Amino acid sequence: MISIDIEKKLKGYGGQQWLKIKREFAIGSIVNICGPSGAGKTTFLKIVAGLIQSDMGYIKVGDELWLDTSSSVSISPQKRKTGIVFQDYALFPNMAVLRHLEYATDDRQWINRLLHVGKLDTLSTHKPECLSGGQQQRLAILRALAIKPKLLLMDEPFSALDKQMKNALISELKQLFTELGCTVFIVSHNPEELSDLGSEVLEIDAV
Amino acid sequence: MDLAPIWLTLKLAGITTLVLLVVGLPLAWWLSRGRSIFKILIEAIITMPLVLPPSVLGFYLLMAFSPQHGVGKWLLQTFNVQFVFSFQGLILASVIYSMPFMIGPVRSALQQLPASLAQASYTLGKSEWQTFRYVLLPNIKPSVFTAIVLTFAHTLGEFGVVLMIGGSIPGITRVASIAVYDSVENMDYASANTYSFILLAITFVLVVSVFIYNKSQSKSPLE
User: Is the pLDDT assigned to residue B102 strictly greater than 90?
Assistant: First the structure.
């Protein structure tokens, strides 16, 4: 079980708002996070990854306590090792496709499989600037999966993919998620695209 | 024609650039992350040589490292090191004087990189050092090159601060800019012209190389 109870003050044009989330998620579940712009969806993912501090919070993943502000516990992002797909992809401009995956893992077989899943086998020596938007997005997903995360956080991961590529990728990802037994949080404005993943919904709205 | 001042200048500029590369890169990285009052103060101190008259900086260094009292006396008695009127003194002064030229471009380039690059690396389990070494540094190469060349070129042209702390001891502290001044004082315009022309030519080549390199790298790696 993953237990999350966090509160974070958000700064926005509409004045001060609070992001408050208290919920439990089953290990292995796929959660579609939706809500209006500025509600704190990306902030929520970054708090879970340990990249942003919450004002008050408690996060426990299985037996591991990641965050407990009441007892000043906060595990570093390096130790949490959540796979994260950033909205801007955050690809490393100096690294080619293959190097991105080698930077994340030494497992050669796993790298080859990921390249195949993402249909990037023939582009392994290309740097991000030579890839299309869709290819960059797939690389960002593969890099996040390279560390075989127990918790995968994806921020608008399919927005640059055409329908055909999206369906094929989702089908492959579904199998990988099951194999890895990983829990997945996906921010998406299009819940229908996740229907194949059988996701549950977490609606975020700052108060 | 004594070329020793030219070699001494190149040696001083080379060592200063090397020292600043080792010290300046981590310092620029540290300064680029977050803003606290302490960091702002440190940044202000590092930037001050840009606006401070070199003679003022040289005067305070002369006072601070004078072997007659304070830190200078302690260094001489404890480590037998003297910074005043010595080549190591020139290095110390040059490192302080040229520091903003190394720190500025590197810090600015690091701040312009999207925060998500470092964050992505952290979530892959990489330490801050690994992230700096393999992700951040390779993506600011043009700025690092610019910083290296500017630091080297700026050290070549130092005069006031070098004169104050080093004087004009042939073979030890008499660098090219001071040799120009001495030559003019002695009405030896031919030597002054030669020293000046060599400095002018080296500086021109360095600055042009920065422009050529930056032109070839003009497309941002993030575009």
Answer: yes
